[in-house]
Amino acid sequence: MSDVLTDLVGLVAEVSRTRPHEVTGASRFEQLAEWGSMAALRLLAEVEPRWNVRLDLRRYLATETVAELADVIAQERLRSA
Amino acid sequence: MTRVAVVATFTADGVLRLLRSALEQAGIEPELHLCPFGQVETELTAPDSGLARFAPDVTLVLLHDGAFLPAAWDPTRLDAVEDAVRARLESLESAIAGRGTVLLHTVPLSRVEQRTVVSYRGRAALGRLWRRLNSALLELPDRHPSVHVLDLEAVLVDEPGPVRDARLYRYASMAWSAPAERAYAREAAAFCRAVAGLSAKVLVLDGDNTLWGGVVGDDGLAGIELGPLYPGNAHVDLQRRALALRRQGVLLALASKNSAGVVDELLAEHPGMVLRAADFVAKAVNWQPKDGNLRELASELNVGLDSFVFADDSRFERELVREALPSVRVVPLDGDPAGFSDLVLAGDHFAVLDTTETDRSRTDLYRARRERNSSAAFSSPEEYLHGLELVVSVREATRYDLPRLVQLSLRTNQFVMVRGAHSEAETQEYAVSPDRLLLVISVSDRFGDEGVVGGMWVSRGERAWTVDNFVLSCRVFSRGVEHTALQALVDRAFAAGAERLDAAFFGSERNQPAAAFYPSVGFSTREPSGYTLPLRPPPVVRPAWATLIEGETADV
C-alpha cells in the first residue's frame, strides 16, 4: 500500500463511521455506511490540508474507490511539487 | 444541557459538527438542531416551525454575503444594491425580535464580490455600503435586549485562508471555508458558555517570569525585566490586559513562590508595575504548593474552582494544578513572553453577555468581604452579625436594574432557586406586568456598600403569591440577608391579602445552599414541586441583627 492509501483508509473509516478494518483500497464510497455528499465534503476537508493539495471537485466526486482517490491525491502532490 | 439551534442562509452542516465538539470542550453538553437552510425568517417566525418546536436556549443565526447581495448586482448601481441589502436586514430584524437569546454576526464580503468593482472609488463605495450593513447588525442589541452580535468580520482577519471555498459554495451552497467554519464554531461556543453562566470569574497569575521577567528573589527589584523595552514591555502588556479584565469584573489573584516581603515591595515601589496591591483580590505569596493556595482562595472567595483560570510559565506548577484541581482552566504561558497576553485571552474564558456598574468595583467588594470574614474579634457569630450594622434594602426594579439582575441570575451558582429561569426579556416582563413583581435587593454594612446583590421574581395571585425565582450573590448569603429580603416580600404579600406564599425550586448539583433555605424558615414541601408558607398569622423570618429598608420606586 502507498503511504497515502494507508492514511486515507483511516480517514475514510473515520468520516464514514465504519470500523477501520472494514475499509480497504477496494472499498467503494457509495457502499460505505453513512456516505453522501456531506460525508464526501467532510472527507475533502480532511484530505486537502493533510496532503497539502487542492483537488478539482469534479474529479474528486468522480472517484469510486478509496485506492482511486489515493492515486488522485498522489498525482496532485507530484504535479504541485 | 443547553439547547442550541442553528439557522443559516447557507448549508451549515459542517459548522454543526465543529460546534458540537467546541461546545463539549467548553464544558457544555449540547442538544443541537439544524434548520433547513435558506429559510431563516420562516423558521424564526412560523409558530409550528422545526425551530419553534425545538424551543432552543440559544439560536445561532448564520449569514453570508449572498443573502444580502443580489446575485446579479450591478456595480454601476450601488444605490439599488444598498436598497436590497437594507430590505433584507429589515426582514431579518423583524424575524429575530422577541425570539429569545439570539446570536447574529457581522458578515464578511468575499473577495470575488469586492474585485467585481474595478474602480478604487467604486470599491470604496461598496466597502462603505458593506460596513453600514455590519454597523447596523452591530447596533441590533441596542434595540433588542436578548440579541447579541459576534464581530465575525474582525475575527476572520486573523484566520488563515479565504472565507469562501468557491467549489463548496457552488456544489453544496456551503458559504464558509473550513477555517472560517472552525473560527465561527469556536466563537459561538464561547458565546454559549457565557449564556450558560459558565464564564470564568477569577484569574490567578504567577509572578516570576509571568507578571515580570526574571526571578525577583534572585535578581532583585532592579534586576527584573519590567519596563518599556523588550522583553520587559511584554510583561507590562500582560499586566495591562489583566488590569482591563479587573476593571470589567474579573477578580485577579497572585500566586507566587516568593517571600511575601519582596513581592509587597515590588507591588508598592517598582515603577514598571501596572498592577498594584489593591488590584488583587488576594495574594498567595508563599512556598506552599499552588494547588492548596488555589483551593483556599476558592473557599475564601466562595467561588467554585471551575470559575478559575490559572496562568503560569512553569510546567511543574501547571501540571500540579491540572492534576489536583481538574476543574481549573490552566493557561500555559510557554515560549516568548510577547505572546503571553494573547495566550491569556485566547480561550475567551472571561466572555460575558454584558458588564454592569458592579463589575467595576467587584474587586473592592470581595476584598471587603474577606476582611469581614477575618475580623474574628467576636465571641459568637450572633455578636459578630450584630456588629456588622447590616442594612438590607428591598425595592421594585427599575429598568436600570435589569442588566444587573439578569447577570446575577447567570453568575450565581449557589443561592439560586431556579437556575437560568428568566432571560432579560422575561425579566423585563416581571418589571412591567401588573400581576408580576420584580424586587431588587441591595446590602450595605459597616465595611461598605455591596450594591445590588440579589433579586426576587414574583407572580402575584389573589390568594397566593409565588416566588418564581430568588437569587442572591454568594458574596452575601448566610448573613441573614436572604431572611430579611424574604421578610419584605412576606410583608407585601400579607398586606395585599394573600393567604400563602409559594416558592419554586429546582435542585441541581450546585445550588444546595439554596435548597436548605425555604425549609429552614418554615416553608413546607408542596406537590408536585417547590415550597409553601401560610401567611396567616404573618410569619416573622427576619433576623434581629438586620435593618430592613423598603422602597417603592417603580418608574419602568
UniProtKB/TrEMBL annotation, chain A:
<feature type="domain" description="Carrier">
    <location>
        <begin position="1"/>
        <end position="77"/>
    </location>
</feature>
<dbReference type="InterPro" id="IPR036736">
    <property type="entry name" value="ACP-like_sf"/>
</dbReference>
<dbReference type="Pfam" id="PF00550">
    <property type="entry name" value="PP-binding"/>
</dbReference>
<dbReference type="InterPro" id="IPR009081">
    <property type="entry name" value="PP-bd_ACP"/>
</dbReference>
<protein>
    <recommendedName>
        <fullName>Carrier domain-containing protein</fullName>
    </recommendedName>
</protein>
